Amino acid sequence: xxxxxxxxEQYADAQAAVDQLLNAGFTVDEMNVIVQVxxxxxxxxVNQSTMHVDVTDKIGEQTLHxxxxxxxxxxxxxxxxxxxxxxxxxxxxxxxxxxxxxDNTGNDMQSILxxxxxxxxxxxxxxxxxxxxxxLFWLRAEDERAGLxxxxxxxxxxxxxxxx
Length: 164
Prior knowledge:
With about 160 residues, the chain is of the alpha+beta class. The chain has one domain. The protein contains eight helices and eight strands; from the N terminus they run E-H-E-H-E-E-H-E-E-H-H-H-H-E-H-E. It has helices spanning about 10-25, 35-45, 65-70, 90-100, 100-105, 110-115, 120-130, 145-155; strands spanning about 1-10, 30-35, 60, 60-65, 75-80, 85-90, 135-140, 160-164. The strands form two sheets. A six-stranded antiparallel β-sheet has the order 5-6-2-7-1-8. Strands 3-4 form a two-stranded antiparallel sheet. Helix 1 (about 10-25) runs antiparallel to helix 8 (about 145-155) and helix 6 (about 110-115) runs antiparallel to helix 7 (about 120-130). The protein is globular. The N and C termini lie close together (about 10 Å).
């Protein structure tokens, strides 16, 4: 099993990468995302003040898919390092919730990423870039499919990639 991390400066690039991964047969259960709440809200093509997503992910006649579908219905988590974020995926949820309690535990988002195996300098860059509006994405993939996932992330301008 491989874990691939990538950071996206542009939400649209992350959306395209997620779409390509889903079309290639990867599942949302393999994906993790951390993005500032305001960045996600600015990019979603729906009226956030009246949005209510039920089990179907449909908003009126619009069905959310890809990255928007992943982020729909999420509750923000306030972290000490990067502010309020949406965290999608089991590992992203663990990271963001642990970082939310960093004042009590001493674990900040950067140190948790380092514990996952991300190099210290890269983890610091991820945190700085999330703070500045980038989106952090990672995927757990079977070894034989990791190359396909890495190609999708690179094709759509994933930066500071880490493959573990």
